[in-house]
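Quick entry, no commentary yet.
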Amino acid sequence: MPSQSPNEFVITSSVRTEIVLRAAESTTSTDALLSGIDASDSAVYDALSTLRDRGLLTECSSGWELTAHGSLVADSVSAWQSSETFLATDPEFWKNHRLDVIPARFRRRLPEIGEYEIVRDTPQDPNRSEDLAISMIESADACELTTPYYSRRHQEAIPTHPETRLLVTREAIDVSLQRYKDGHREVLTELEPASIRLTECQFASVVTDQKLKFELPTLSEGPTTQHGGNSTPEPSERGSVTDTTAIFVSETDPAVQFGRDLFEALWANSEPLGPYVERQFPELWE
């Protein structure tokens, strides 16, 4: 059988994991490890020996320190632990929603967010998640909003601050403009046209100075295929963000930064609204 990878070798032992993570912080003496790790002395000595034999750890005059290989493994193990902690907050949410709609480099950053809450609709409160989202927008001086769908309540709640920016899909804009043409709205928009740009996205998000909220598409319950006895949805059967009854909310500083960075990345690749409206709704452009 092939030998374990360095990452697997470390994480399959709590003692080895703790030694590697402690050594990643600073050079650590044997005595400090013996007194600081909840394990027998023989278990600590054995872990030190095997980590050294693997080339992950080396002993110097001031104690134990990681090799370059060990530092890379420590970074990987730390990231793995962060992901495990992040997922453990609400495993069901991550099992029932799609995350492929967020760029990979931002998916990898999700564990940085730390604490979060999943707010779900209930039979007693079927609009709970939307009400919370609206309250979040209304209480903000400004926000950055990304959406693939039109919502009258969201439209009315968006703050008209100069720093407010919107990224919307063509489909959402079409509905909004049509409602204006049909007389369902008195004002086309109170925001500067330059504050609204067109994007291609399948998730919804709101970022304020204090919070991040996003909605992900649900996984469809459509036809399934069998894989080793397990049933999984067909790849073509994918839900919509409008099907979701749960939203992700976080108030940590890393969450707000994550949301801003994601919005900026989408904004940089977006298109101005004016040419599209002029082409599709010339009567409004005039």
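second:
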Amino acid sequence: MTEEEFLQQYHREDYDRPSVTVDLVLFTILDETLQVLLTKRREHPFQGKLALAGTFVGIAESLDEAAMRALHQKTGLHDIYFEQLYTWGNLNRDPRMRVISVSYYALVPAESLTPLGEDVAFYPAEKILQHGDIAFDHAQIIRYGIERIRNKVNYTDIAFSLVPEEFTLPQLQKVYEIILGQKLYKANFRKKIADKIQPTEKMTSGEAHRPSRIYRKKESIC
């Protein structure tokens, strides 16, 4: 039997086919707080509760394409680098049917945010996890996303995704502190990131504070 003959007589209906979704954990920093993008559900199940932005994956699109489509539909944003976070497949995670979700996460500087769609907003991540009413297993996904970025901030340049292209060292240190949830010693921090940054010729105005050197991320860092 050839492969073509095999496929002609293959019965796909003999196997269950669960639905697949993508869920987006989009972080930013607003009001010196790590915040996560959530949308208020208009329909059942979990009507009125907060949920991550997401969508069902179309039969003719890849996971990444579905993630970018959901991002644009919910926020109007595009061309954001997402990284897969985890695949969630608990049997009863969606009361409608068997649904497997591939979650993605990304960090976006507040300066690049555009006006969001209706019922979509950023919420303080830790506060919403403690006191919010979150749909599906999305609280678990958010917690895992926070854990991932806290781990990665120590050995990657992920924190640079939350500052403008040009920044001061106090700005960058504040981002690290917000992600890690702890204060850092200035001297130790600057030693740690010294090989990741390069100074520009620019200085802050110094109208209210002592002028600070403005830096950029080294192009070689990846």
